Fold:
Amino acid sequence: MLYIAFWCCVSGLNAQTATIVPSTFAAGDASVARQGEWFAFHNPALLASENKVSASAIYENRFSMKELSTQAISFACPTSLVNVGVAVSHFGYSNYSELLAGITFARTFDKWLTIGVQFNYYSVNFSNSVGSKGAVLAQIGLLSQVTPDFFVGFNAFNPTRQKVQYQDIVRDIPSVFSLGVMYRFTDELKWLAQVDKEISSDPIWKTGFEYQPVSVFIVRIGGYGAPFIPTLGAGVKWQNFNFDVNFERHPSLGITSIGVLRYVF
Amino acid sequence: MRSQRQHINLFFHFAWLSLLLGSVSLSCSAQTTENNTSKVIARIYEQMTTNGESDIDFTTLEEDLNYFAQNPINLNNTTKEELDKLQFLSDQEVENLLYYLYRNGPMQTIYELQLVEGFDMFLIRNLLPFVTNGPAGTKQEPLPSLGKILKYGKNELLMRVDHTLEQKKGYAKTDDDATAIQNDKKYVGDPFYQSLKYNFRYKDRIEAGLVGEKDPGEELWGRYHKGFDYYSAYLQLTNVGVFKSLVVGNFKANFGEGLVIHPELTYSKSGDVMNVQPHNAGISKSSSTNEYNYMRGIGTTLKFGNLEASAFYSFRYIDGDSTGSSFSYIKTDGLHRTVGDLDHKSTIWMQVMGVNLNYRLSNMRIGMTVVDTRLSRALEPTPRPDNMFYFNGNHQLVAGVNYRYRWKKFNFFGETATQDKGGIATLNGMTLSPISTVSFVALYRYYSNKYDVLLANAFSEGSRVNSEEGLYFGVEVHPMRKWKLTAYADSYSFPWLNYSVSRPTDGYDLLFTANFMPSRKVEMYWRFRYEQKEKDLAAGAITNYTGKYDKASLRYYLTFTLNEQFSLKNIVEVNRTTDEISKPSFGSFVSQELSYSFRKIPLSFDIRYELFDAVNYENRFYSYEKDVLYAFSVPMMYGKGSRYYFNCQWNISRKFSLWFKIAQIYYADTNVISSGLEAIQGNHKTDARAMIRFKF
Structure:
């Protein structure tokens, strides 16, 4: 079971950009055009919409197996010139682990054009005997406000197709291109949709709705992929704290959960 | 304060509804209510099914709709129970309507329907023939004397005959008919279907009826059987004193989400994506000719303020292969055409006792159901790996708790049940309409391996409420006037084996429908459906391999009402199926229907011609056909060929009406239709059906 789950993860079958990149709590994991909040290692252009300093701690547990968990922290800092973010993520266990660290810059030039770039360092620890190998990879994101309520987002993760190689072992780092939209029916209700294309895999569609019935509570419903993976999540706000959870159900492998605690200074 | 934009929207909605109302009233004036009802039922069927399930039984729905077409529901004086009878309304839509009336008071005009949250033109069009806005607060009248009830009640007598014109093997002459019958090589009866149905209704307070039916091949009068093969009788009193309902005879009991008891039709996944909850009619009469899904005895619901208490007792016989002290399966088809069938007829008695308590608060309802089922002999299915968790024994005690709770724009619902031999089933869901143009539903179900209840019928992918887990999402969006988009996605898994599935499997299905009503004369939709499941596959040397298979289908549906007399309907559908070891196969289906109602004579007819090409069984098509009153025809088309039918209704006088239908299917790729005693030598099959109704 561990082997199957692990293989699904590392081969990118579950629409994950990479095992190292934590999922988002966005409805249906459709985050690329979700204007308003930045998710570490997802569309860097979203960082431009952060207008307060914030820090986030992320924990993702795939298929209820601690060996397949990801821990991440991120920090966002808006400045008058450009918004800056840093994030670090760790995946795996003693015999196999991955580390990803990145620094992000984002700026809105016009409502039509927000650009974000991110420089990531990826390191994989194959085993105690082999040791770690790493590579630097880039990430580019765009966000455009087409109408007051309609946004289009784009993200390219590892567009230069960097990989990690040690003797005969080659660890491909996925190159994923995401294109998505967000439509705001009202301030309380948003619809998200996107398509992810990893170069060597089939496209994956993602969609979901987010509804905020009261200012302190939000509910999210969505799904993605084939086999279809439904997602269900919720978030609460308390003073400067935001806490969001999201659950995904893979028909064979079970539940993946993610929890994010965010503090806005 | 509404914004200017909302006012403009409202104006357009009013204008559109006015046109719609105009068309309905015009057509009402020219057509019989049955005709109207059958059109609505055809529309509802198209909405509520995606696979064209052939065993769907709309008898109760059609009876209620026919009644409401003649006696429309007064929306200003209605109840949830009354609105629940309009089964095309989802539970949330009923709640929204009642909430609107509670919040805004009586409707001043029927145009207000469009202001009810979640009510769109498509829904209102179905609803309009059956509702009105009358005076509010009318109290329930006490029942008059028996003489007045009999005088002012409405009686209806229906007689129906069906016949397949080609001879089936089971009716063919043999050298020794008596021996052939004894050896199950020939049917005991004639090839005619016959039924007799009598209904009495005094407003919505008293209903009584008697049904007699014989299927083709069953004997009406002779050596093996005398009289109809199946009889049903019922008497139902509604809202008499503390009795909310009292039924003697054949009845149905529907409570909760169906995990404990729900023998009637349950709306599961369908094009009507929001309608996923069963309609809890509680205790109500059963007038259907379905020979399995009913109870026989007495049932009542008492009302004490916010508390409703129901109790029922049923004792009836069921069919099974009884030998000694046990039997291996329950025969549910109701067919007793051979000596073998007759040997299995009514061999086991089934006793069902149950109670339900239901307590209502302003925004919450909580209920509890307990059902005790006993069989005269133990049910012991033939052991197979896939059925090792099925119920076996002669006693089953089941209990469940159900709830519904409304908070702001959320509606939560669910039921959790268990049985005496262990096992648990739970179904929980939520509907939400954050804004008037968008609605969601989410539903999670978990049925453990050990949970297998004889009378359960709840939301599921499999045919039983057993060994399944799944999550269903549905969404309905009205992006702009005249358009409606609906979609659902269901992801499920079976933790144990299924029939012809030799390992635990999973699957999912997706549906997307775009409805468009450009004018009052034209309505159309495009529907895409994709399903992926697993089953045992075999091809060449490969056997005992469980692999994935999928089916994708695309349907275009168009209705065009030229005027109040003439309308056209077209369906074009294509599908593709494939599995892991076979090449993809394709199917196609085209249908053209024409309906005409004469202006000066009370005669209407429908003609349809269909072409189908579905060489593989997996590519088969179903198509709902209009039929005689209270008959439902959803033929399956598989192979290559064509089908046509002619259906007409003639209201000879105010009291007498006549229906007639003839349908023929022609196969281009076979010279033998069906198999066994049902086999027809030839490449065509012709079914004729006639019904006469006498109202007095």
Summary: Chain B is about 15% helix and 45% strand. Confidence is low (pLDDT under 50) at residues 1-31 of chain B. The domain at 72-137 of chain B is CATH 1.10.150 (DNA polymerase; domain 1). The longest strand of chain B covers residues 542-561.
